[in-house]
Amino acid sequence: MLRKILFLISAGLFATAAVAQGGLPRAELAAGFHRIVAEVAATQAERSQGLMHRQRLGANEGMVFVFPATATHCFWMKNTPLPLSIAFLDEQGRIVSVAEMAPHSEESHCPAQPARFALEMNAGWFAAKGLKPGAVIGGVDRLPPGR
Questions:
Q1: Tens digit of each residue's pLDDT (9 = 90 or more) over 8-38
Q2: DSSP state of 23
């Protein structure tokens, strides 16, 4: 009986871990052998909130923005205290461009060509991993559709 209770408690904790700090679901992505745990922003409200007011991200944590269509989706950092890197991705998860974004900046960061997804990570993350345009982020095929 005690084993069953402990199992149920641990299963509940595991299920809770699948929801991120901001209450968003998480998805596991991969850049080569690098594992990424990303909060998923798939609705307009979630994408608008993004990582605003967030004080920290873990070493391999980020946020993936899922759009309903491929287009030129631009980002800024107003109300975001973290320096971030953003990779814009096509339908297959191929990086089309990467930008570094300064905290609290109102400068627009747009993809070099239309993109379906955007992945924000801690500043310098993509460069530190040697990820440039053409590299593929795996797992985008398992993301929910953008709404």
A1: 333 333 333 344 455 899 999 999 999 999 9
A2: S
